Amino acid sequence: MIALGSDHGGFALKQEVIAYLEKNGMEYKDFGCYDEKSCDYPEYAHAVAHAVADGVCEKGILICGTGIGMSLAANKVKGIRAALCGDCFSAQMTREHNDANVLCMGARVVGAGLALKIVEIFLTTEFSNDERHMRRIAKIEE
Q1: Residue 89: what are its φ and ψ, rounded to 5°?
Q2: Which residues in 103-117 are b (16+ Cβ under 10 Å) and which e?
Q3: What pLDDT was estimated at residue 13?
Q4: How far apart are CA 46 and CA 68, in angstroms?
Q5: Would you say 115 and 13 are in contact if contact means Cβ atoms under 8 Å apart?
Q6: Nearest to 109 by CA among 138, 59, 70
Q7: For the chain, how many helices (H) and strands (E)?
Q8: pLDDT score of 135
Q9: Sign of CA dihedral 94, 1, 139, 85
Q10: What pLDDT does 21 receive?
């Protein structure tokens, strides 16, 4: 299951991601927000990050205006490796090399078409399990 969260700035793009997940038969849980009223992104970042860290959800996707705030907040949760991605190569590499478990995007930075391709790559790319990457992740976790 995929954990989803956004603030008001990412709400519309989150709706596009939801449509993509539904079209592809992927289960998700939407942790909010649920409209475009101004809200505080850390609440949703923490909810998604805890769902992933606790094993309730396999991966998470967070969207705000730039993706920066969501990334900063999510990475405060132990066990989370949230990656801000605005291109397909970064989405692939963060999965292969960092085993990132939360994708962060900026709705004011990427359009819906690119965002959905980033989501697809993030959700389908496997971690490489290479010794050097595992060693580096262990150092991050320390």
Answers
A1: -60, -45
A2: bbbbbebbeeeebbe
A3: 98
A4: 14
A5: yes
A6: 70
A7: 6, 5
A8: 93
A9: positive
A10: 98
Residue count (the chain) = 142
Q: What pLDDT does residue 129 have?
A: 86
Q: Is 118 exposed, middle or buried (0-12, 13-18, 19+ CB in 10 A)?
A: buried
Q: What pLDDT, on a 0 to 100 scale, did the predictor assign at position 130?
A: 84
The answer to whether the CB of 81 falls within 8 A of the CB of 140 is yes
Kindly give the parts of the chain with pLDDT less than 70: none
Q: What is the pLDDT of residue 74?
A: 98
Domains of the chain by range and CATH? Answer: 2-141 (3.40.1400.10)
Q: Residue 59 carries which DSSP code? A: E
Residues 6+ away with beta carbon under 8 Å from 21: 2, 27, 28
Give the catalytic positions in this structure: 64, 97
